[in-house]
Automatic annotation (TrEMBL):
It comes from Salmonirosea aquatica. This is Methyltransferase domain-containing protein. CDD domains: AdoMet_MTases. Keywords: Methyltransferase, S-adenosyl-L-methionine, Transferase. It comes from the Bacteria. InterPro entries: Cation-dep_OMT, SAM-dependent_MTases_sf, SAM_O-MeTrfase. The keyword S-adenosyl-L-methionine applies. PANTHER family: CAFFEOYL-COA O-METHYLTRANSFERASE 3-RELATED, O-METHYLTRANSFERASE-RELATED. The lineage of its organism: Bacteria, Pseudomonadati, Bacteroidota, Cytophagia, Cytophagales.
Amino acid sequence: MNADLFKKVDDYISDLLAPEDAVLTETIESLDREDIPQISVTANQGKLLQVLLMLGSARTVLELGTLGGYSTIWMARALPEDGKVISLEIDENHAKVARQNIEKAGLTHKVEVRVGKALDLLPKMAANGEGPFDMIFIDADKPPYAEYFKLALTLSRPGTLIICDNVIREGKVLDANHPDERVQGVRRFNQLLAETPSVTATILQTVGAKDYDGMAIAVVNQTA
Ligand SMILES: C[S@@+](CC[C@H](N)C(=O)[O-])C[C@H]1O[C@@H](n2cnc3c(N)ncnc32)[C@H](O)[C@@H]1O
Protein backbone atom coordinates (compact mmCIF):
# COMPACT_ATOMS: atom_id res chain seq x y z
CA MET A 1 0.00 0.00 0.00
CA ASN A 2 1.45 3.37 -1.00
CA ALA A 3 0.37 5.30 2.10
CA ASP A 4 2.63 8.24 1.25
CA LEU A 5 1.03 8.72 -2.17
CA PHE A 6 -2.50 8.36 -0.73
CA LYS A 7 -1.69 11.05 1.86
CA LYS A 8 -0.28 13.40 -0.80
CA VAL A 9 -3.33 12.93 -3.04
CA ASP A 10 -5.64 13.44 -0.06
CA ASP A 11 -3.84 16.73 0.72
CA TYR A 12 -4.12 17.70 -2.97
CA ILE A 13 -7.89 17.06 -2.96
CA SER A 14 -8.42 18.80 0.38
CA ASP A 15 -6.33 21.82 -0.64
CA LEU A 16 -8.38 22.13 -3.82
CA LEU A 17 -11.87 21.26 -2.62
CA ALA A 18 -11.98 21.04 1.17
CA PRO A 19 -9.60 23.65 2.58
CA GLU A 20 -9.93 24.08 6.35
CA ASP A 21 -10.63 27.53 7.71
CA ALA A 22 -9.16 28.72 11.04
CA VAL A 23 -12.02 27.21 13.08
CA LEU A 24 -11.49 23.72 11.64
CA THR A 25 -7.69 23.94 12.03
CA GLU A 26 -8.11 25.10 15.63
CA THR A 27 -10.59 22.27 16.28
CA ILE A 28 -7.95 19.75 15.23
CA GLU A 29 -5.32 21.59 17.33
CA SER A 30 -7.64 21.56 20.36
CA LEU A 31 -7.54 17.73 20.36
CA ASP A 32 -3.77 17.68 20.94
CA ARG A 33 -4.04 20.36 23.64
CA GLU A 34 -6.73 18.35 25.46
CA ASP A 35 -5.04 14.97 24.99
CA ILE A 36 -7.91 13.74 22.80
CA PRO A 37 -7.01 11.24 20.03
CA GLN A 38 -6.70 12.48 16.44
CA ILE A 39 -9.50 10.31 15.10
CA SER A 40 -11.74 12.90 13.44
CA VAL A 41 -12.82 12.39 9.84
CA THR A 42 -10.48 13.99 7.28
CA ALA A 43 -11.27 17.34 5.67
CA ASN A 44 -12.13 15.57 2.45
CA GLN A 45 -14.52 13.24 4.28
CA GLY A 46 -16.09 16.24 6.03
CA LYS A 47 -16.70 17.70 2.58
CA LEU A 48 -18.22 14.40 1.41
CA LEU A 49 -20.66 14.57 4.34
CA GLN A 50 -21.56 18.12 3.28
CA VAL A 51 -22.15 17.08 -0.34
CA LEU A 52 -24.41 14.22 0.74
CA LEU A 53 -26.37 16.42 3.15
CA MET A 54 -26.91 19.06 0.48
CA LEU A 55 -27.91 16.41 -2.07
CA GLY A 56 -30.76 15.41 0.24
CA SER A 57 -31.60 18.99 1.34
CA ALA A 58 -31.07 17.75 4.90
CA ARG A 59 -32.24 19.86 7.83
CA THR A 60 -31.73 17.41 10.71
CA VAL A 61 -28.72 15.23 11.56
CA LEU A 62 -28.10 12.74 14.35
CA GLU A 63 -24.42 12.02 15.00
CA LEU A 64 -23.07 9.22 17.21
CA GLY A 65 -19.57 10.16 18.44
CA THR A 66 -18.79 13.88 18.66
CA LEU A 67 -15.11 13.84 19.72
CA GLY A 68 -14.01 17.51 19.36
CA GLY A 69 -16.82 18.48 17.01
CA TYR A 70 -14.84 18.42 13.75
CA SER A 71 -17.33 16.39 11.69
CA THR A 72 -20.17 18.13 13.56
CA ILE A 73 -18.95 21.51 12.28
CA TRP A 74 -18.63 20.27 8.70
CA MET A 75 -22.17 18.88 8.83
CA ALA A 76 -23.80 21.83 10.64
CA ARG A 77 -22.38 24.15 7.98
CA ALA A 78 -24.24 22.23 5.29
CA LEU A 79 -27.62 22.73 6.99
CA PRO A 80 -29.95 25.71 6.62
CA GLU A 81 -29.99 28.28 9.47
CA ASP A 82 -32.89 26.50 11.19
CA GLY A 83 -31.24 23.09 10.75
CA LYS A 84 -30.12 20.98 13.71
CA VAL A 85 -27.39 18.48 14.54
CA ILE A 86 -27.87 16.38 17.69
CA SER A 87 -24.54 14.76 18.52
CA LEU A 88 -24.15 12.04 21.17
CA GLU A 89 -20.90 11.71 23.09
CA ILE A 90 -20.00 9.49 26.06
CA ASP A 91 -16.99 11.49 27.26
CA GLU A 92 -17.70 14.69 29.25
CA ASN A 93 -14.39 16.26 28.28
CA HIS A 94 -14.83 15.53 24.57
CA ALA A 95 -18.29 17.09 24.77
CA LYS A 96 -16.93 20.18 26.57
CA VAL A 97 -14.18 20.70 23.98
CA ALA A 98 -16.65 20.10 21.13
CA ARG A 99 -19.07 22.69 22.53
CA GLN A 100 -16.21 25.23 22.71
CA ASN A 101 -15.23 24.52 19.09
CA ILE A 102 -18.85 24.67 17.93
CA GLU A 103 -19.25 28.03 19.67
CA LYS A 104 -16.10 29.36 17.98
CA ALA A 105 -17.63 28.24 14.68
CA GLY A 106 -20.77 30.28 15.47
CA LEU A 107 -22.89 27.12 15.27
CA THR A 108 -24.25 26.79 18.82
CA HIS A 109 -27.77 27.55 17.60
CA LYS A 110 -27.59 24.59 15.19
CA VAL A 111 -25.90 21.96 17.38
CA GLU A 112 -26.82 20.15 20.58
CA VAL A 113 -24.20 17.85 22.11
CA ARG A 114 -25.74 15.30 24.49
CA VAL A 115 -23.56 13.38 26.94
CA GLY A 116 -24.23 9.70 27.53
CA LYS A 117 -23.90 6.20 26.11
CA ALA A 118 -25.44 6.12 22.65
CA LEU A 119 -27.04 2.74 23.46
CA ASP A 120 -28.91 4.41 26.36
CA LEU A 121 -29.72 7.69 24.64
CA LEU A 122 -31.04 6.35 21.32
CA PRO A 123 -34.00 4.29 22.70
CA LYS A 124 -34.99 7.28 24.86
CA MET A 125 -34.94 9.53 21.80
CA ALA A 126 -37.21 7.12 19.95
CA ALA A 127 -39.54 6.78 22.98
CA ASN A 128 -39.74 10.59 23.22
CA GLY A 129 -40.83 10.81 19.60
CA GLU A 130 -37.63 12.54 18.40
CA GLY A 131 -36.81 12.24 14.74
CA PRO A 132 -37.09 11.08 12.09
CA PHE A 133 -33.72 12.51 11.08
CA ASP A 134 -32.73 13.33 7.52
CA MET A 135 -29.24 11.93 8.08
CA ILE A 136 -27.65 9.75 10.77
CA PHE A 137 -23.85 9.56 11.04
CA ILE A 138 -22.60 6.61 13.09
CA ASP A 139 -19.01 7.22 14.23
CA ALA A 140 -18.86 6.09 17.90
CA ASP A 141 -17.35 2.89 19.36
CA LYS A 142 -17.31 0.03 16.87
CA PRO A 143 -18.44 -3.15 18.75
CA PRO A 144 -22.15 -2.09 18.92
CA TYR A 145 -22.34 -0.80 15.31
CA ALA A 146 -25.09 -3.33 14.40
CA GLU A 147 -27.15 -2.24 17.44
CA TYR A 148 -26.58 1.42 16.52
CA PHE A 149 -27.81 0.72 12.98
CA LYS A 150 -30.99 -1.00 14.26
CA LEU A 151 -31.68 1.94 16.58
CA ALA A 152 -30.90 4.40 13.77
CA LEU A 153 -33.63 2.74 11.70
CA THR A 154 -36.15 3.53 14.46
CA LEU A 155 -35.22 7.22 14.10
CA SER A 156 -35.45 7.19 10.29
CA ARG A 157 -37.99 7.72 7.53
CA PRO A 158 -37.98 6.70 3.88
CA GLY A 159 -35.12 8.69 2.34
CA THR A 160 -33.04 8.98 5.52
CA LEU A 161 -29.34 8.69 4.79
CA ILE A 162 -27.34 6.55 7.23
CA ILE A 163 -23.55 6.77 7.08
CA CYS A 164 -21.25 4.58 9.18
CA ASP A 165 -17.52 5.27 9.31
CA ASN A 166 -14.59 2.88 9.77
CA VAL A 167 -16.23 -0.32 8.50
CA ILE A 168 -13.23 -1.80 6.63
CA ARG A 169 -10.44 -1.39 9.22
CA GLU A 170 -7.42 -1.75 6.92
CA GLY A 171 -9.03 -4.82 5.34
CA LYS A 172 -9.16 -6.72 8.63
CA VAL A 173 -12.91 -7.26 8.02
CA LEU A 174 -11.92 -10.03 5.60
CA ASP A 175 -10.78 -12.14 8.56
CA ALA A 176 -13.83 -13.85 10.09
CA ASN A 177 -11.75 -14.91 13.11
CA HIS A 178 -10.07 -11.58 13.77
CA PRO A 179 -9.57 -11.19 17.54
CA ASP A 180 -10.26 -7.41 17.61
CA GLU A 181 -13.79 -6.76 18.91
CA ARG A 182 -13.96 -3.58 16.77
CA VAL A 183 -13.37 -5.68 13.65
CA GLN A 184 -16.02 -8.18 14.76
CA GLY A 185 -18.40 -5.29 15.49
CA VAL A 186 -18.13 -3.83 12.00
CA ARG A 187 -18.29 -7.32 10.45
CA ARG A 188 -21.65 -7.88 12.23
CA PHE A 189 -22.78 -4.44 11.05
CA ASN A 190 -21.73 -5.01 7.42
CA GLN A 191 -23.58 -8.36 7.40
CA LEU A 192 -26.69 -6.75 8.90
CA LEU A 193 -26.51 -3.97 6.31
CA ALA A 194 -26.49 -6.59 3.56
CA GLU A 195 -29.46 -8.40 5.13
CA THR A 196 -31.65 -5.32 5.67
CA PRO A 197 -34.06 -5.09 2.74
CA SER A 198 -35.42 -1.70 3.85
CA VAL A 199 -32.19 0.08 2.86
CA THR A 200 -30.16 0.47 -0.32
CA ALA A 201 -26.51 0.51 0.67
CA THR A 202 -22.90 0.21 -0.33
CA ILE A 203 -19.46 0.71 1.20
CA LEU A 204 -16.83 3.08 -0.17
CA GLN A 205 -13.22 2.18 0.59
CA THR A 206 -11.38 5.22 1.94
CA VAL A 207 -7.67 5.94 1.70
CA GLY A 208 -5.77 9.09 2.37
CA ALA A 209 -4.55 11.07 5.37
CA LYS A 210 -6.00 8.48 7.79
CA ASP A 211 -5.64 4.69 7.77
CA TYR A 212 -7.11 2.58 4.96
CA ASP A 213 -10.76 2.14 5.90
CA GLY A 214 -14.30 2.41 4.54
CA MET A 215 -17.56 4.30 4.89
CA ALA A 216 -20.95 2.59 4.58
CA ILE A 217 -23.62 4.70 2.88
CA ALA A 218 -27.25 3.60 3.12
CA VAL A 219 -30.56 5.18 2.22
CA VAL A 220 -33.86 4.01 3.68
CA ASN A 221 -36.03 2.86 0.79
CA GLN A 222 -39.15 4.82 -0.15
CA THR A 223 -41.17 1.63 0.23
CA ALA A 224 -39.64 0.77 3.64
C1 LIG B 1 -14.11 8.43 16.00
S1 LIG B 1 -14.53 9.51 17.32
C2 LIG B 1 -15.72 10.59 16.55
C3 LIG B 1 -15.08 11.52 15.55
C4 LIG B 1 -15.99 12.64 15.10
N1 LIG B 1 -17.23 12.12 14.53
C5 LIG B 1 -15.27 13.45 14.04
O1 LIG B 1 -15.11 12.95 12.92
O2 LIG B 1 -14.84 14.58 14.35
C6 LIG B 1 -15.55 8.50 18.34
C7 LIG B 1 -16.19 9.23 19.51
O3 LIG B 1 -17.22 8.38 20.04
C8 LIG B 1 -17.24 8.50 21.44
N2 LIG B 1 -17.87 7.29 22.00
C9 LIG B 1 -17.27 6.10 22.27
N3 LIG B 1 -18.16 5.24 22.78
C10 LIG B 1 -19.35 5.89 22.82
C11 LIG B 1 -20.65 5.53 23.26
N4 LIG B 1 -20.90 4.31 23.76
N5 LIG B 1 -21.65 6.44 23.16
C12 LIG B 1 -21.39 7.69 22.67
N6 LIG B 1 -20.16 8.08 22.24
C13 LIG B 1 -19.17 7.21 22.32
C14 LIG B 1 -15.77 8.63 21.81
O4 LIG B 1 -15.62 9.19 23.11
C15 LIG B 1 -15.25 9.52 20.68
O5 LIG B 1 -15.32 10.87 21.05
